[in-house]
Specification:
The protein is an alpha/beta fold. Helix content is 35%, strand content 22%.
Length: 486
């Protein structure tokens, strides 16, 4: 079989999520064997749904998804399913296979070597850090040695070394890979082509070339189509003006006016449906708790985890209003554990009485997945901001692209990126005195990140931040850094 054979094709595929919520509208495209493809689209456009259609866990409403006979597919999802968090690592990998694998421990060691991670096979999945879980997700797909590898936001939670290791793996991987990611440099290092899922038209546009060249192609096309539309709009208006002028003259002039109107209608049909750019959230501010003064939090000690062993270390960190602390260190060293301990009032830190803690967790476990978005936001209003009405809440939510049917959607049914925007909207409403953020760039559309960085930079309360994205951190004022590795 030649490398150029179409391993995957979509023929006029349409799909709706729930009642009357179209995701795809008669979509057609193909992916050749051996290609490395990026899947782009706005948060909530349906990128993860497209993966479920490819893997066969979801069926299209109409049209056909064609997979070449004998092709095996494996997907590394964005997050480990909640019902698998209490499995051992061995049990987690055993679930990757339909039949019992007798040399599973050997296979686990081989695949852990590939993702540059090692741990006891009987360790519980929940006990691993976000970055370590990201490596497990990737390993769970690779261990199946699929012909088609689907990677959904694989760089989330990974430190610099982890991203470099993943990049090299994808470059060397001989089979087909389709990747969803918001990391432009990562994507450009291996991309052969791009599938762009347009949230407005519900179509997929297919481009060939590396990531940056494709982005240039899209921009050039939009500019050209906008210019053409502007010229057409000018001609349409001229014909309408002439038609109005001649219609009042009577006699033969009315026939001229009729032809002018017909010409305007013909030109209107030529207007190109330009692909709209992704909408961006509005600039926003996270207000700080107004009545808080003096020391907000004191960190006296923390734990560092190396070789799966925890070691206590002393600290002397004091955060007051308008003080920003960055936690630094590789995956698995204990950053998320420290944030969780602080947020829950555990040993090693003291939060001043009356301080409201706003906690952005990378797994969104501060959100009730059974609530609708409206219930999730109103819950914060009722607890902390009785001065706000529902109209105020909806105005804040709209700034984060949360409106209409999204407001009545269960949180658990949202995309990971949409969950992140709901979490930020809750922080704006909550008005915390201490803001704790664990990887707030994960899953978020890259267009939103400068606005989020600006909001964090201007935050006037005490803030503790964990992020593995240097470009994002560079835009935020950092007053102190705690490097857990040193």
């Amino acid at each position: 079989m030649s490398k150029n054979d179409a391993l995957l094709t979509f023929d006029d595929v349409s799909f709706e999520f729930g009642h009357n919520k179209p995701i795809l509208d008669e979509v057609s495209f193909s992916v050749r064997r051996g290609m490395k493809v990026t899947l782009m689209g706005q948060n909530g456009a349906g990128k993860s749904t497209l993966f479920s259609l490819i893997s066969g866990t979801t069926k299209p409403e109409s049209g056909k998804v064609n997979i070449l006979n004998g092709v095996s597919i494996a997907q590394a999802k964005q997050v480990i399913p909640r019902d698998q968090l209490d499995l051992t690592m061995r049990e987690f990998f055993e679930r990757c296979f339909k039949e019992k694998v007798y040399d599973i421990d050997v296979k686990i060691e081989e695949v852990l070597e590939v993702v540059n991670f090692h741990a006891p096979h009987d360790r519980i999945v929940r006990s691993f850090s976000g970055g370590q879980q990201a490596r497990l997700l990737l390993a769970s797909a690779i261990i199946q040695q699929p012909d088609l590898l689907l990677l959904d936001e694989p760089t989330n939670n990974l430190d610099k070394a982890g991203i470099e290791h993943l990049t090299q793996f994808i470059k060397n991987y001989k089979n087909t890979v389709i990747v969803i990611s918001h990391d432009a440099d990562f994507l450009n290092s291996f991309t052969d082509g791009v599938l762009y899922l347009d949230v407005y038209t519900k179509k997929i546009e297919q481009y060939f070339g590396n990531y940056f060249k494709v982005v240039e192609q899209i921009s050039a096309r939009i500019e050209k189509e906008n210019m053409k539309n502007a010229q057409l709009a000018k001609e349409i208006q001229e014909n309408k003006d002439k038609a109005n002028f001649f219609s009042h003259k009577g006699g033969q002039m009315r026939l001229v006016a009729k032809r002018m109107r017909e010409k305007a209608e013909e030109l209107e049909e030529e207007i190109v449906d330009v692909r709209k750019e992704d909408r961006t959230i509005r600039p926003f501010e996270i207000p700080s708790q107004p009545e808080i003064v003096g020391e907000i939090i004191k960190i006296n000690s923390y734990k560092v985890i190396k070789n799966h062993e925890a070691t206590n270390r002393k600290a002397n960190i004091s955060l007051k209003k308008n003080t920003h602390l960055l936690l630094r260190g590789p995956n698995g060293i204990g950053k998320t554990t420290l944030l969780q301990t602080i947020a829950e009032g555990g040993k090693g830190s003291v939060i001043a009485d009356g301080v409201r803690v706003g906690y952005y967790r990378q797994d969104f476990s501060t959100l009730n997945f059974d609530h609708t978005v409206r219930e999730s936001l109103m819950d914060i209003v009722e607890k902390f901001r009785k001065d706000l009405g529902e109209e105020d809440m909806r105005s804040i939510a709209a700034g984060f692209l949360i409106s209409g049917d999204v407001m009545n959607t269960r949180v658990g049914s949202l995309s990971e990126g949409q969950k992140g925007l709901v979490a930020f909207a809750r922080l704006v409403i909550e008005r915390p005195g201490l803001l704790i953020l664990d990887e707030p760039t994960n899953h978020i559309n890259f267009r939103h990140l400068p606005l989020i960085a600006e909001a964090l930079n201007e935050y006037k309360g005490a803030m503790i931040l964990v992020s593995h994205v240097p470009e994002f951190v560079a835009k935020i004022r950092i007053d102190d850094t705690l490097d857990l590795e040193k």
